[in-house]
Amino acid sequence: MTDLLYSEVEEALRASVRALLAARSPLPAVLRRAESGETYDTHLWHALAVELDVVGLLVPEHLGGAGASAREVAVVMEELGRAVAPVPFLGSAVVATTALVGCLPDTEADGAEDGGPAAAAAADPEIAAKLLAELARGERTAVLVVSFASRAGAVAVTVADGRLTGTVTSVADALVADVLLVLTEDGLYVVDATDPGVTVTPIVSLDLTRQLCDVTLDGAAGRLVAAAPAASAAVASALLAGSALLASEQLGVAMWCLETTVDYMKTRRQFGRVIGSYQALKHRIADVWVDVTQARAVARYAAACLADGDPDLPVAAALAQAFVGPVAVRTAEECLQLHGGIGFTWEYPIHLFLKRAKADSIAFGTASAHRAVIAGLVDLPPA
Amino acid sequence: MPDVDTVDEGAVRARVRDFLADHDPAGTDRLEFLRARFDAGLAWVHFPPGLGGLGLSRALQQAVTDEFAKVGAPDNDPRRIGIGLGMAAPTILRHGTDEQRRRYLRPLWTGEEVWCQLFSEPGAGSDLAGLATRAVPDGDGWIVNGQKVWTSSAHTAKRAILVTRTDPDVPKHQGLTYFLLDMQAPGVEVRPLRQITGEAEFNEVFLSDVRIPDGDRLGAVGDGWAVSQTTLMHERVSIGGGIVPREFGEIGIVAGLWRERPELRTHALHDQLLRGWVDAEAARITGVRLTQQLAAGQPGPEGSASKVIFARLNQQLTSLEVEMLGEEGLRHDDWTMRREAVVDFFGRTPVHRYLRAKGNSIEGGTSEILRNIIAERVLGLPTEMRVDKDVAWKDVPR
């Protein structure tokens, strides 16, 4: 079966990402930024792109990317989750990148047949190649304009004469995106975020470290990058990759909560003893550890299936969201309780992780939506 | 002797095929075949040469097992001798004298001598080190008196691993000594212990003036706790780990029932089933990862989690199965006292599975003790207060 361990290369990558985040994005700064006018950390993003060269991991080598696998990306996601880092990695380096890779000529060939020669002729796959190269260099960031809660991309935008109109709500990572990827009935369009027809409205979001926004297009100019149905396939694969790799972020969130709480339990004293000496609390944190241990295996499995193109990927990705999402939420909730009063303060960072965990559990569909997907995949039909 | 670093899976498979060329499984007596396999070092390849192994990595054993299974060669019926293979053997290998290893390991592996484990007592369950069965020196041996409980296979066993108290005047962990016991010795009495399923899978074992030669002592006098740790470590590793296919075990039974019996389906049960499926698959993948860690020589702490997970999951799913069946779940096949030779968690009726699963969170370390172990040894939290730690065993209230 698939290798579920971390390689030495992956551990080295983890160490470099962790060191950068510790130096450039300490939690007090993340909390301050959440209440500032700039909720995304563009300096940190630049450092990830230029100093560590990790934002182009999924971009093919011939386009200037690292041509790495989803395994390495998953390790980066773990670390970004562990630091609740406010960067558009998931939206740009994972989802939008996967969508664009799905629009490249060789992968588009199958879909073009179904779409007919006329539709295929209108799409310009060179746009995807050029954009991927820019993403790999960190010059631009892109976002797939779908609701963060959406498991399958719905079409909410119409197109006429290359002009796009419509509104998509609760989009993640669009706030700092230079390029919008918009799904229409005709296919996937690339829209410049600075186009006068584009309005990006930040919303007050549950997750303070990943502020969502509503995107309104009012006759914005778009270029067709993939015609339907190749576009739908590209979007589906992008959201599947998002589901699979979000589990690693959720694992990272849970890891921080567990480690921080264990440390706290070793130092906080009540009744003359450290609270970690009380069996009622030891058993609760032991259960959290058991959950996180399983979540790690499940997240690794999803990343490995994505990396290997394993036919089990749809099950692995749905399992990841049905299992790891709730584990991250439960872990954050348990850890808040085990901290007592300080865990309920604004100053202490647990709430950032609770908010991230809860928001992530809805992202790409809820656990119950993913259980319904599993039901279809493994032949367990509803009543 | 082959060099450990250069023997790969292909070489091991070739070795098995060479062995099979010389020992036709169809034309050889079963026992002779198994003995020859042991002598060829193909019993358990990670054991040392001369003791049924080749001193190779444990990871290569699966290839050996596969090669023998491929030709339908007789095996040693591992489920019947699980305690010997999983617990007695590694303990004897680690702590035994050369003579003890030579005497006991071969008939243990071939199944000629079934082993059982005489550890738990009515007064010593989770607190095993508090056990009261006394062994006192007598000439060139020992005289043992006491009572053991929850002993599976005692009624079929030829031999037992046994922990006794040899010094009541020191704190509990220091006064223990480990023995290898002949179950046919005078004074050993085995009585069935009936359980909530109606059957008697386990036994009570009464030891009355049983004589054990000093040559059957395993480890030094007073070292019984350290020796028994080897046994217990292997017990927990053998539960819950390993690589199994998707829907193996109880989830396969429940999922199969769902597929075959549409009339049983309700929306509420569907959600429970899917939650169970997700949990079972997560547990399965965790077991795969644990196995990969062990094979890669990174014995991670995940092992402690496996048994806690399995117990909870099996209880949850067997409960769901009975509920799913509704009226049929009210019926059972038989409450009479049976004495099954092999334990089958997934056999018989849904009611049997539901009830048997209750033992999963008690046997081999309760889930509560395992949570203590996780909290203390994995997470590094303070140990439980131990009021009896520095007190002579005889002075501890009981």
Low-confidence stretches of chain A: 107-121
Rg over CA atoms of chain B: 23 Å
User: CATH H level of the domain at 232-377 in chain A: which superfamily?
Assistant: Butyryl-CoA Dehydrogenase, subunit A, domain 3
- Main β-sheet of chain A, in a few words? 7 strands, mixed
The assigned CATH architecture of the domain at 232-377 in chain A is Up-down Bundle
Strand content of chain B: 5-15%
**What is the 3D shape of chain B?**
globular
Compressed to H and E, one letter per element, the order of chain B equals HHHHHEEEEEEEEHHHHHH
> Given the helix and strand composition of chain A, which structural class is it?
alpha+beta
Q: Count of DSSP helices of chain A?
A: 12
Strand count of chain B? 8
Structure write-up:
The complex is a heterodimer of chains A (383) and B (398). Chain A has a domain at 232-377: Up-down Bundle (Butyryl-CoA Dehydrogenase, subunit A, domain 3), CATH 1.20.140. In chain A, helix 10 runs antiparallel to helix 12 (367-377). Chain A has 383 residues and is α+β, with helices and mostly antiparallel strands. In chain A, the strands form two sheets. In chain A, strands 1, 2, 3, 4, 5, 6 and 7 form a seven-stranded mixed beta sheet that branches. Chain A contains twelve helices and nine strands. In chain A, strand 4 and strand 5 (187-192) form a beta hairpin. Chain A is globular. Chain A has helices spanning 8-24, 27-34, 42-51, 70-82, 89-101, 105-122, 125-137, 230-267, 279-308, 313-339, 350-360, 367-377, and strands at residues 142-144, 157-160, 163-172, 179-183, 187-192, 198-202, 212-227, 269-270, 273-274. By secondary structure, chain B is α+β, with helices and mostly antiparallel strands. Chain B is 40% helix and 14% strand. Chain B is built from eleven helices and eight strands. Chain B has helices at 9-22, 30-39, 61-70, 82-95, 98-110, 224-237, 250-260, 267-295, 302-325, 350-357, 367-378; strands spanning 115-118, 134-138, 141-152, 159-165, 176-182, 188-193, 202-213, 217-218. In chain B, a hairpin with an 8-residue loop joins strand 6 and strand 7. In chain B, helix 1 packs parallel to helix 3, helix 7 packs parallel to helix 9 and helix 9 runs antiparallel to helix 11 (367-378). The longest helix of chain B is centred in the last third of the chain and has 29 residues, at 267-295. Chain B is globular, with a radius of gyration of 23 Å. Chain B starts with 8 loop residues before the first helix and ends in a 20-residue tail after the last helix. In chain B, 40% of the residues are buried. The mean pLDDT of chain B is 92. The chains are: A alpha+beta (383), B alpha+beta (398). Chains A and B meet through helix 8, strand 9, helix 9, helix 10 and helix 12 of A and helix 7, helix 8, helix 9 and helix 11 of B.
